[in-house]
């Protein structure tokens, strides 16, 4: 497969997944805002979290300064100037898909194209109060796209690069959600166990569609350590770090050819660590420290995948045309 | 009949459905009964359905200068244009004859130049032409074919008279619309296809693939074929992607390819892979910054040298522009007689050359009646359509002609045939042309029909999509 094609497929998948995750994060923030909480600065804390998770805080502050619910929502959902807004993510997903529409099935293209056309059609009528339906729509479309992909595409390199993009992005997002929530939710360990605490952790689980799984597995009240265990170490939890790395590891093995040995090694190492770690080890090291290290290592893995498969290397004389779109920002 | 524009308003042209005298031509009988007899609202709804399908499938073209969100649909008309079997057979013979002669001409020009030696075409017409590629002199190409894909623009003026307007031998486009128009019609009107025996066109990508395989450099058993596109913002990007995917080959951009030791490779996830045939949709000038425009970033450095050395095949070949130039067009009937010893089956439009003083004089005196074109123009840009132009436009164009008469040719305004077309006021006749796609490998192949373009504005003769024209499905009946 062409390196450029693989690159577009990888990023197409990442942007769809990113749009879905941003929708999840915002959805939870909206729900959380409905909960009773009159502690000082709750709004700022609540609405800073989504900005922080998605790495959008600096751009937001430059544009608006103070954190306000409506502005944060707009900036993260619909603002074309925000490079990781849902709007931008879907636009870039579609541009990447368009660049390789011959490499995806026509049904995949139709989903991704109509998703973009529908978004543009809905845009004038989207405001703060109708956004919950919008977040559901983004999640549904993302599910639909994944389903159509698995249901229609050949199981070859095209699918593998799509899955690599999906699961690397998902691992990254899950780690960020967990990290930020941890900071917001645990200003001090004394707070653990309060009602607000319960709702907040519940909301976190909801954001990754894991509340039902939590109840099923633990049959007990919600505790931070178990939430962390579920989200980091449970291989049977679809959005957990372990589950994502399972997919990444297996997918790298499946890709044709012998390039990318270093990427396989990095993925294998990360995967093995998740496989053999106990949640007590994570907490004794510090959850934040653990997650920061994980994010660094997935970034290194992503870089190595680029280096091995996606970059246009091995000929210095060729002219690289500047893309009209910087399709692969971030 | 209530939605047909009344017959008194119907222009005096030949109508594909009703000839000159208004009598229904046999091949349109079922369409008249099954399609046009439906209420106008139903037709309009179908037309909207078609647009939705096109929009959803992203069958769009990008407009130069516009941003990416402004991809436009080419208007699609739901009333098909229909050829009878015999009618088409005659056209097919004429098209094959013409394309065979054009390829023989190209081979001759870049080899022994017999046609010049015989005095049939003046040397300066060829050698003094900016489309002539001196670097192609003596280069041997597979099958001696230069233009593997030709788009021949035809117009009709009566039952049996077709004229060739233009031979497109560089990177002719539009074939994806031929295929998608059919696809859309079959989705919208399955019953019409049940009632007719419409010759299929869906195998065109297969014919194209065979042609490209036959064009590979010698001794390559299983050639690797790619489609080379300038990129997503090219107006025909949809077509490039469509054809690549229909043939199951890679769609590449210049930056995906590199040349080493006169062989061409593409960068893949498994390392470099050699490419043998490039169906290029990039013009000569942009193909290779080392051989042509140094500022081009669309091409591949060293590609032309690799091509000349036989390390890779390009379709269409380099330098084909010399044969589809509008001043070379004048000589195509002579080419057919010279190379094939046959009478041309398709006519040229009578053409005045403005570098000849007496013809220039005539043309300047008759501008309001004529169509004047730039010799090297394309896409309907930069032409004067006398009968529909204002006096001021004609005066301005006269100035342009006088600056450099040799850059222009003129032709009479033909009474282009019309075809029933759904427009706002109902179903009305609109002018059409036809672009069949002729493929030349070891043999010449074409899918029955082609792309019918329709001028949606009443009375307009300009059908180019860049000028607001639309398209129709083109049917060739099998009996």
UniProtKB/TrEMBL annotation, chain A:
One protein family per Pfam: Alpha-E
Top-level taxon: Bacteria
InterPro entries assigned to the protein according to its UniProt record, in alphabetical order: ATP-dep_Glu-Cys_Ligase-2 (IPR051680), DUF403 (IPR007296)
Boundaries of every DUF403 domain copy: 1-310
Protein name stated in the entry: DUF403 domain-containing protein
Organism listed in the record: Halothiobacillus diazotrophicus
TrEMBL record, chain B:
Gene3D superfamilies in UniProt: 3.30.1490.270, 3.40.50.11290
UniProt xrefs under SUPFAM superfamilies: Glutathione synthetase ATP-binding domain-like
Matching InterPro entries: ATP-dep_Glu-Cys_Ligase-2, CP_ATPgrasp, UCP005522
Residue intervals of the Circularly permuted ATPgrasp domain: 80-411
Source species, domain of life: Bacteria
Name of this chain's protein: Circularly permuted ATPgrasp domain-containing protein
Organism encoding this protein: Halothiobacillus diazotrophicus
Lineage, uppermost ranks: Bacteria, Pseudomonadati, Pseudomonadota, Gammaproteobacteria, Chromatiales
